[in-house]
Amino acid sequence: MPPAAQPDIRAGRLSAQDYAVHFGDATPRLTASQALLEAERCLYCFDAPCATACPTSIDVPSFIKRIADGNLRGSARTILESNPLGGMCARVCPTENLCEAVCVKNTQESKPVAIGRLQRYAVDALMESAKPQIFTRARATGKKVAVVGAGPAGLACAYTLARLGHSVVVFDAKPKPGGLNEYGLASYKTPNNFAQREVQWLLDIGGIEIQNNWKLESPQQLQALRTDYDALFLGMGLSSTHQLGVPGESMQGVQDAVDFIATLRQTADLATLPVGRTVVVIGGGMTAVDAAVQSKLLGAETVHMVYRRGPETMTSSRDEQEWAQTHGVNIQHWLAPVEVVGEGGHATGVRFARQAMVGGKLAPTGETQVIAADMVLKAIGQQLGNPVLAQAGLQLQGGRIATDATGLSSLPGVWAGGDCRAGGQDLTVEAVEHGKQSARAIHAQLTRG
Question: Which domains does the chain have, with CATH numbers?
């Protein structure tokens, strides 16, 4: 396909009604009767594999049994005791790869219990009740803990520490707390400002202060936090994105998919957000899927999602890939970008080199292909990218913070969790578990006789 002659990036491609429909709730909550019928499908297994598969170890059979019994408040308590961000995780967790993947109903009926949707049903019922906060703080310990990053890991750590009686100050670089829950997820997954409603529920426990627009820019800042607080948890996520490293990458019309999604999430009127008529998204992960689908929903006529390897190595789940395809996204494999082509300083397409596995290694075949694009979105992964951490003496592993099983770093009194911690899966639910476990380890150290 030849490059487009005239780049076409503009806003207002759809009617107001279309925007509302396209960015409504992608998976509406279950009705009461649907939830009851689904809960009664559960076998309430002893030593249930679904609970073992959950990174936060939610007692899945127990919370589902409470739904079947009509005890939604008790169900939500079971969920939130293990996962304080259970509402968001119910919306964005790849349950098809975790709890639902090991549900015994897969072998009996070829269809697992809808664990994620039942979890959302219970937590939403609590959040919308007259008294949504079901936990109370322990007696104040007099200890102060600093948390850097108000994403899933930092919020889970802060909430767990606050429940245990500690005072927590959360420092975050963004204007709003929430991290990727607020800035990095597709709007149709978390409509109606759910990320901020969940943050408010977390803050309602008391003892947590959030300082926004605070950036870690020097080793002195980190040392000051270590000096002024009794412990420090780092949960700042991944602050920078990988670059393509090809000619033409700096042209107009080329941007990071993460920035595109963040802008979309913070745009009140989507009719004002420009999108290309033809969009190319480079990458094979969840961010690539979210960027590609939302480009289509904004009115792009053609959207290509291009990945350099085969489908079996894509980090987005099979369900996510099918979701993209059902929304008209063309997924292409075995193509690696070698050049962004353009005219007058604006991108008009991307030249790709076809790839193949040769001797177990990825190699170009010699064939190239140009895919036309008014807009090019880069979604090839993120990195920690903050030199301050190494300068402060933190040991890094693969560009992320090295820790023990509890999240303790190489610096005494400093823990880390979430995407910035080495060895993780980059999942929201795993970040929550990191924050929770580190909070418990911090509590144990601060209260040690």
Answer: 9-23+243-381 (3.50.50.60), 32-127 (1.10.1060.10), 144-239+384-446 (3.50.50.60)
